[in-house]
Prior knowledge:
Chain C is of the alpha/beta class and 424 residues long.
Amino acid sequence: xxxxxxxxxxxxxxxxxxxxxxxxxxxxxxxxxxxxxxxxxxxxxxxxxxxxxxxxxxxxxxxxxxxxxxxxxxxxxxxxxxxxxxxxxxxxxxxxxxxxxxxxxxxxxxxxxxxxxxxxxxxxxxxxxxxxxxxxxxxxxxxxxxxxxxxxxxxxxxxxxxxxxxxxxxxxxxxxxxxxxxxxxxxxxxxxxxxxxxxxxxxxxxxxxxxxxxxxxxxxxxxxxxxxxxxxxxxxxxxxxxxxxxxxxxxxxxxxxxxxxxxxxxxxxxxxxxxxxxxxxxxxxxxxxxxxxxxxxxxxxx
Amino acid sequence: xxxxxxxxxxxxxxxxxxxxxxxxxxxxxxxxxxxxxxxxxxxxxxxxxxxxxxxxxxxxxxxxxxxxxxxxxxxxxxxxxxxxxxxxxxxxxxxxxxxxxxxxxxxxxxxxxxxxxxxxxxxxxxxxxxxxxxxxxxxxxxxxxxxxxxxxxxxxxxxxxxxxxxxxxxxxxxxxxxxxxxxxxxxxxxxxxxxxxxxxxxxxxxxxxxxxxxxxxxxxxxxxxxxxxxxxxxxxxxxxxxxxxxxxxxxxxxxxxxxxxxxxxxxxx
Amino acid sequence: xxxxxxxxxxxxxxxxxxxxxxxxxxxxxxxxxxxxxxxxxxxxxxxxxxxxxxxxxxxxxxxxxxxxxxxxxxxxxxxxxxxxxxxxxxxxxxxxxxxxxxxxxxxxxxxxxxxxxxxxxxxxxxxxxxxxxxxxxxxxxxxxxxxxxxxxxxxxxxxxxxxxxxxxxxxxxxxxxxxxxxxxxxxxxxxxxxxxxxxxxxxxxxxxxxxxxxxxxxxxxxxxxxxxxxxxxxxxxxxxxxxxxxxxxxxxxxxxxxxxxxxxxxxxxxxxxxxxxxxxxxxxxxxxxxxxxxxxxxxxxxxxxxxxxxxxxxxxxxxxxxxxxxxxxxxxxxxxxxxxxxxxxxxxxxxxxxxxxxxxxxxxxxxxxxxxxxxxxxxxxxxxxxxxxxxxxxxxxxxxxxxxxxxxxxxxxxxxxxxxxxxx
Amino acid sequence: xxxxxxxxxxxxxxxxxxxxxxxxxxxxxxxxxxxxxxxxxxxxxxxxxxxxxxxxxxxxxxxxxxxxxxxxxxxxxxxxxxxxxxxxxxxxxxxxxxxxxxxxxxxxxxxxxxxxxxxxxxxxxxxxxxxxxxxxxxxxxxxxxxxxxxxxxxxxxxxxxxxxxxxxxxxxxxxxxxxxxxxxxxxxxxxxxxxxxxxxxxxxxxxxxxxxxxxxxxxxxxxxxxxxxxxxxxxxxxxxxxxxxxxxxxxxxxxxxxxxxx
Amino acid sequence: xxxxxxxxxxxxxxxxxxxxxxxxxxxxxxxxxxxxxxxxxxxxxxxxxxxxxxxxxxxxxxxxxxxxxxxxxxxxxxxxxxxxxxxxxxxxxxxxxxxxxxxxxxxxxxxxxxxxxxxxxxxxxxxxxxxxxxxxxxxxxxxxxxxxxxxxxxxxxxxxxxxxxxxxxxxxxxxxxxxxxxxxxxxxxxxxxxxxxxxxxxxxxxxxxxxxxxxxxxxxxxxxxxxxxxxxxxxxxxxxxxxxxxxxxxxxxxxxxxxxxxxxxxxxxxxxxxxxxxxxxxxxxxxxxxxxxxxxxxxxxxxxxxxxxxxxxxxxxxxxxxxxxxxxxxxxxxxxxxxxxxxxxxxxxxxxxxxxxxxxxxxxxx
Lengths: 302, 269, 424, 262, 366
Ligand SMILES: Nc1ncnc2c1ncn2[C@@H]1O[C@H](COP(=O)(O)OP(=O)(O)OP(=O)(O)O)[C@@H](O)[C@H]1O
Ligand SMILES: Nc1ncnc2c1ncn2[C@@H]1O[C@H](COP(=O)(O)OP(=O)(O)OP(=O)(O)O)[C@@H](O)[C@H]1O
Ligand SMILES: [Mg+2]
Ligand SMILES: [Mg+2]
């Protein structure tokens, strides 16, 4: 039982790491209908820029601010050069443009910095908390990672903030309008460009935060882009348009992945099934709710 | 006509789409302050294109004005963005409604007011104002826009434009798909807005009967050219207009006896 | 004109595996440059051109085909990739091109009578794992103390990773320990569940058979889960600076096997720094990586390559060689302690003795331990030899099956037939 | 038109149909008949449930209550595919053409149900596949000719003006050689001229092919002139059913829909 | 070249339905085929065959497969390489265990991959749009997992890579030693000819499908599935059929990739990156275009090679930093994708058609 709980808690906490990646996805999708495949590379770029500076003895805070500015500028440039000319095009075109962008940034990130593996330490403690030592009364021999808890708090805060922003502010409503119908949004005078610039800039910031946390957890290297693959089933379960969905999806995927790997993999002779199992979990949920748990229903009227 | 500068003046514009498809070849239209102008024409004649040229939405459709100019309140608008246009009081109600499907009816209406940075009390009042005029959508305020019936959507689109408190509304085919009663209603609203709030209108329409009934001036546009212009009265009495847009005989056209020859006339392609 | 020999360099300097590629190929090129500065091999200088493979088989094969006939013909091909080198086994045979895979490769390829053009100088997978078990035995105070001990192997979810499972089972059977293999799906940037398994079964040691990002993540997760990193023992592809530095403090005390110690305290390395980097011809942009594990491996490979060429020249004359002549050089490659001393590589390069039946020839390795504060590896063992006996039968079975499947007649490995520049 | 409706056989019988969306009642207990060979118009204010009614008839929406009898067969729920097989074709209020295809292909796709070739045959372009393609092309050409679409047969429909798209959509529906044709506002957004054309097509189909037509239209002129039978809906309820002249004088209908006398 | 279609009357439906209604086009295609079959076979170098022509054709077939699902039927798929993997392993096991002749093995490998495709396509009946990515990615990861986890598929080979042995290359009756079969094993010409012929057949079949009811159904489902349903097209069947055929193509491509190109079997080469590369090929070439599929494959595969060669040529071998070249070629490909989407969403295929149109009216500008 204790072991089961430990697996569950560990899974839920690592799921939050996936949510971090997923939020950026949702934000862009929700506000412009774009499925941003470049998310992973943006994450890499942010983390790589940051770590390259700290490795060159730049102060933590200054490096953070410079990277922040860079990601915001990048967001604005992307809006100018990619999104704006493609306003009003099909969603597939927009998606593919981000795939192109992904390739571009991949070349750029590695070209400007390098493709080596870098360590990154944010100073968040990596030591486990042994519950049995801390709270002997509980009688549970479980360890919980301090780092994961810190990451969960950060992710939770971001998600809360964004949810409130979308539901209760004008800009939030404009963002949702834009994702529905670019043409109509322009016709009522929503400044599409400004909105997109904001979204991409905010995404840049999210990428930076996610990139740093992931970077600390798994080191900063090209493989960081694979974080995206962890984020994908998460947003799809949660629903492409739902920010709270990103966190719920993350928890579900995290827990199901760990439980599956530990208890279910036996069925397959102990082979690591984590990868496709996450996607299968997502698939099962989608079969029940084709647009995710909190996703907006597709509207089709004839 | 009056000596005042027109609120909108389209001067001999030509429009091409995707650099190759030419849609307008010389269209000139003046809208005076406080006037309703209607733009008549068959399918594909260029009405929508004209409206979009004014609202600057053309670029989003890969179209551009290759010649001529448009002035709003005496100012050239060629450098303006759609946002600037709405800000300065020109709102287009798009053909085919284009309401936000995933937003509720009320949220749809609210989006129209953003441009004004109005406080919430004012916005509330405006909302009430809209609901007064379109009672039908008041019941549906919490419904998703995408699930409304065609007519309801048209009302939402109109209401959304009103929320911006515009000076000039470009109304693209408002009657399409509306019940006769509602068409009257919508045009009555147009009239009321025009008379009470002084909003000018450029209304693009197929339904010449109704358009000319409410408009002061009309333009007939065919294949991207203005072929006829005049006061609404002149136009509704002109034979060619009657023939093409009012069904030959005006009031008592019969649909059941349409003869084949009607279609033998050159197709509008 | 001056005589030259042409070596294609199928490097990978971008993508997920770039860390290994830049270090390894950088080391090779730096060593080549050192030799060229000293007048080449028997007066023949080396020339080369690079081709980016991104560690992908398809790109590697394309590089091979593009480069093999350049400049009068390549002399050998060393892609540092199991996939690429295995994919080229038969092509190499047809083209008479030696395919080199230092410290890795298709294990059955050790049998030179069946794989005449395939060389994997250094150690093979089975050596590696038997050495690791021997080392653990040493830590426990003798092989007999392994009885009842539990060893877990955390392996990369790929054929490379799986290859050692069966061998570890037999190894533990022989020494009375129990063995559990735990797979980490590629790329391995999330290992929570694997470490939960480890926490549950509480092994005494965890062997890390990792690759790329999986290694630092394993150390960090071990730390997070409270497993002592000093009991985590890395294999030959989990032993580089790039594996431990990103893990930061979590890697302190981590031990790993190596065929070539890290560091710059070797004469040959000092020469490279002085003569090659001094002349501005060095390949590494980041000079702090000089003496790193991958770069030193590159230097080792450079030594192996060029010694093979030198040995072939001893037989065929001091001139540019053909690829099949180079093959002879590899097959008769012997690095004695004296020769290593002459090369200034004592302590860096293990003794090697390749022959027709054994295209590996080394079977020796040491252990090193990471000191995170000093940011350096310290050697903690002497050369340990692999359990060649145990591995030979498995290798023979694999190679003979391969020969049967492919209608290959094993070539007789008598002393004289070995001298022939034989045909297929 | 002069024939009394009683003497005719109903092709479609709707019995007590109710449909609601998450509590919103779109249709409440509606019953009416559509007789063979007639043009039946459905009118009513916006949001009255007309389009929903059509969607129920051809199975896009499934009603919570009621039955549909078509051609003697009774259904609790229709499926779009069954409806098509039984001979119900339709057009849509917001044009639902296949935007990436040419006019010809759009209309050809209407004959899909009649094509029997397996995909092996089509892949190899042998046997039935080759023959059918020619045979059906002939029929489709007739429709193209009838609707006057000759000059644009290879044009992608997306680039056509609205009016022509509506015509193509009619063509696609006709291609299926339906027993019953459901038309959802086929004349919306058209000039008088084009409306005349369209009503001419509709009547010719009705007269010459005997196709039963259910028509939703807001132009009272058209409705009065060409329909045999008018059904009026308001707020999901039926408030009128009968010959045009009768319905137009019904006070309920005038109040709910027509407004001031027309 | 100058040619036109004006003034030529199409006299029958049959001639209107021809694949290439213009006589000039027909001649060009015939000349092109003759060139590919005769001139290229006779003159090309081994490098050209084995590193350029064969992979381009094979990848073109895979791209075509993806295009059938995504371009024609509108079902986004990121599992292309996974499906290729199923095809490659199916072919290997068919040859190994049933001693099938290679062309049959290719065909049945396609069928097996197709069946797998149907399984992973099933969710498409309920899930739409981007959500479908989950299913196709699941296919990709499942493929990578299953062939890794169960070495049985690889004849219990421990190293995970199998060199395909000569006796697998039985093309027709007889043993591999018969001269006819030996040609296909020992020479690149042979493999090239097989690849070319299979590619040609698959292209013809695809062309036939897209211009008939099958293709119309795909496009109808892509453009508006409700309307398709209403006119009696079974959306479910059409989607599954499209998945089947799409993955059939991918499967055959996978088998050819192993047998005709690399000569090895290894699941790692069918990784997610390859899926993405194939998607690039579709985008660059043009959605819903057969010609585009091949243009895309040629460009995306050939570009890095071209750029390195140009680098070698301009700077002399060895001096150009490969990482620099690689990163730049990524930047360039990424830029081209974006620029194409902005300027010409139809990809190279659309560019080609525009050029052709211009040629038709040349020298009279329109
Ligand atoms: N985005 C576009 N790209 C290319 N051509 C276009 C585009 N939009 C319109 N056109 C073409 O421009 C011409 C004028 O179209 P427009 O939409 O302005 O006509 P309209 O009078 O509004 O017709 P309708 O009554 O059908 O709305 C038509 O021939 C049309 O095909
Ligand atoms: N899929 C749906 N989900 C929710 N509500 C729906 C749906 N379809 C229709 N409705 C509602 O049912 C009612 C009837 O709609 P319907 O489209 O049938 O009206 P209509 O009579 O065709 O109107 P119009 O003349 O404006 O087209 C409307 O209030 C609409 O909002
Ligand atoms: Mg219009
Ligand atoms: Mg309707």
